[in-house]
Write a structure and sequence with these properties.
It is a single chain. The chain is 75% helix and 0% strand. It is an all-alpha fold. Helix 2 packs antiparallel against helix 3 and helix 11 crosses helix 12. The termini are far apart.
Length: 309
């Protein structure tokens, strides 16, 4: 690893994230009512190790850690432990007291992230998210003056609510790179060539957009799907036949995002919010988004066909 300001700051944030995972595991161990405290804590401790010492471990060890965490999750060995949460009356009282000021920290987070990413480019865009999170936390303490321990309690509670799906974004990003390196795009191109009539640009456009949405649903990540589907469909069946690459690229990626709205694999968009909001069904957000996603996908097909050729 080449050490510079950006990587040093990133390592600090990775260690902080790892510490949150450790505290979540300890929370499970200390809960006498947690039926699977051993496997639950093991999951969080292993995940913490990959964040804190991952760069210094042999790659096969990190891979083994991922396999073990996946096995623990598949065996339903990762469960939620007991959390100290305010009563409905306490929540209502706090809401009446602070009102719309609760939106100040999220706004501070968004604004500071843009400013840090724009003016402190040496830190990197990913670090801007961590720095803005720290600034937003400071703003929350200044506004609401809670006990410092609440930052730890609520941080571990939210992480516990999210559960094992918290590791999906990292795993799916790696899966996209693996598929691209394995030449999945070439295999898709051979299969699609049987479906698309020679020279039929409308069908080619529809296949590309639908494939982007479907593969994003599988991968959970539009960026991971983009490289595979564009190599397999976009370039040989659209761009090679005169389509504007800018339009194909831009609208192809957003067509993939239509799939993001319809899949639990996009855990950070669909499952995590459901866990944080404690909805009755963890798929409630997806169900409400499906009609909009299908309409948007149809509009993408029409606009790409009109604008790209």
């Amino acid at each position: 690893m080449t050490w510079n300001l950006s990587t040093v700051v990133a390592e600090i944030f990775y260690c902080i994230i790892g510490i949150i995972f450790i505290l979540t595991g300890i929370k499970a161990l200390k809960d006498p009512g947690c039926a699977k405290k051993g496997t639950t804590s093991a999951f969080w401790f292993i995940l913490a190790a990959t964040f804190i010492v991952g760069p210094y471990l042999p790659k096969w060890v990190t891979g083994l850690c991922v396999v073990i965490m996946a096995a623990l999750t598949a065996m339903k060995g990762v469960v939620q432990s007991k959390s100290d949460v305010p009563t409905a009356q306490e929540t209502r009282k706090s809401a009446d007291k602070f009102g719309y000021s609760v939106f100040v920290p999220p706004l501070v987070l968004a604004l500071s992230a843009v400013l840090v990413a724009t003016f402190l480019t040496a830190l990197g865009a990913n670090n801007a998210i961590g720095i803005s999170g720290a600034i937003a936390l400071a703003a929350a303490f200044l506004l609401f003056k809670p006990k410092p321990v609440y930052a730890v309690k609520d941080g571990t509670r939210l992480m516990d609510n999210v559960g094992s799906v918290g590791m999906l974004p990292q795993v799916l990003a790696a899966l996209g790179s693996l598929f691209t390196a394995a030449g999945v795009g070439d295999v898709i191109a051979k299969g699609v060539s049987v479906i698309i009539p020679d020279g039929n640009l409308l069908i080619a456009t529809a296949v590309y957009c639908i494939a982007m949405a479907l593969f994003t649903m599988i991968m959970g990540n539009g960026f991971a799907a983009f490289s595979v589907i564009t190599v397999g469909v976009g370039i040989p069946f659209l761009i090679a036949h005169g389509a504007n690459p800018v339009v194909v690229g831009a609208m192809g990626l957003t067509a993939g995002y239509c799939g993001t709205l319809m899949t639990p694999m996009a855990a950070n968009f669909n499952i995590m919010p459901a866990a944080l909001l404690e909805t009755k069904s963890k798929y409630a957000i997806i169900f409400s988004q499906v009609p909009v996603a299908l309409v948007m996908l149809l509009i993408h097909i029409i606009l790409m066909y009109i604008l790209a050729f």
